[in-house]
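In response to a reviewer's request, we include the raw inputs and outputs for one of the modeled complexes. The two entities were modeled together in a single run.
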Amino acid sequence: MRNRLDKWFPYLVVGPIFLHFTLFYLGPFLTNVIMSFMDWKVVGDSTFVGLANWGRLFRDPIFWQSLKNTVVFSLYYVVPVIALGLGLAMIVNSGLRGAPLFQAIYFLPVVTSFVVIAGIWVWIFSPEPFGLVNQILAFFGLKPQMFLASRQQALGVLAGLSIFKVAGTAMVYYYGGLKDIPLELYEAGKIDGADGLKTFRYITWPLLKPTTLFVLIFITVGSFQVFDSIYLLTGGGPSNATTTIVHQMYLHGFVFFNLGYAGTISIVLMLIILVLSMVQNVLVKYDY
Amino acid sequence: MQSRVRKLVVYVLAILSCVIFLLPFLIMITGSLQDKYFFMGAPSQWITQPLTLKNFKIILSRPHILRWFINSAVISIIPMITTVYIGALLGYIYAKKDFVGKTVTFWLFLSMIMVPMQSYVIPRYVLFAKFNWINTYWAFLIPQAWDIVYFFLLKQYMVSIPDSLIESAKIDGASEMAIFHRIILPISKTSLAIVAVFTFISRWNDLFYPLLFTTNARMFPMTVGLASLLTQGGKFSFEMAGTVINFIPTFIVFILMRKYFVQGIATTGMKN
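The model returned the following structure tokens for the whole complex.
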């Protein structure tokens, strides 16, 4: 009896899980693709509208604004995360005392909720003269800035929050990468008379290339999904200066209930992420 | 001489970045323990103001706050347990068993990793509205019962378990489930701990998903509840008391399980 059940063991487990997968993942995703060609109603009959949602998308200036904002956010965010992550990893890897403690402190924001950090960030970058950064600026004789209330500065302040939150993840990846570099290479470099900068330029940085590539794609994909800090701190404002792809999808789907249109936006997001992972695969394959 | 200077520079940089990374947390803690609308005047006032637990008393007497905490605990602890268990069971089967449809189902699972949650959450919302699952725990516990990424992580680990261990148990007459419980689970402890801590933290901190699936304030988890306080705008020290309450469980998990976070990131990363 026991043996007979054992024969079916894989099917008894995989069957229900595959059903679950179809009902909650695959099915909703395929429905979403279909949804982008329909006027989907929460209540009542949904109608097929062909490319109407896609046409609307191409003519929607706020969608283009959100795409532009997302790309600008990504540009503000990606390079500092890489630089900071690598810098912190080199500090932790330099053999200083208490390295695990330092590493834990740099990693702390990663495990902290956006809600927690956003609440603090709002005060650090308060537009009032008593805000922390404005006080520092005043110390250097500079005028107080508007930060999140400024069309020019808001995206930068939001990117700063994400950099602070994610740098620790990049640090851990780079730390792993640095550990994998054979020490003999540094010895050989020393014999050839390479100084610190040259060692970094000719040994460390080239050997970290796979790590950099991975971190680059990983955080770029993340940056295209930015939502939490925008929802919490700006709501997309001032005048759409910080609305992003996912924020637009949220507004259309769950505030205005244009489900078909929101579904279309989410397909664009998926296509962007798909292209990014394909770029990664090609780069890995040809050992860029 | 030169190396000594360099060492000094590294220490200065290390401590300076520690100060920058800890500053927001210090602001949070001092803010929650003082009585003010916003910090006024010079930074020296942070230290000189008297400390008080008043904010915590007020916030705990507010409606729903305890409920939010319990909601967060339910929708992070239960999915943590099921994600580990189902992920391990499924990982074991895909690592060690042969069955019809293995390749096809595996590639279907794999392909959905590329799809961001945003691209299937709307139809899921429509479905759950039909099930009457909005504002219930089911909207969290059922779809988040397992996770494709962690299933892959565990499968990856279980491939490395020697077949001879499983074979010898089979000869002793152990059933498949007995082998899984008595052999596979115990030797996978580290991987299971990694999956557990990451699931807990990501569920506890999640804002987007519960924002969509809870509209009734009684069903909010901490993140959505706090967000409702933050976006209304309120007294700073009061908000900070709320964020401290939300922060404490993740902080405790992080301190106790620190090594698994570092290991987990290292293993999930490059193998994808």
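As requested, we also summarize the result in words. Residues 57-285 of chain A form a domain with the MetI-like fold fold (CATH 1.10.3720.10). Chain A has a mean pLDDT of 88.
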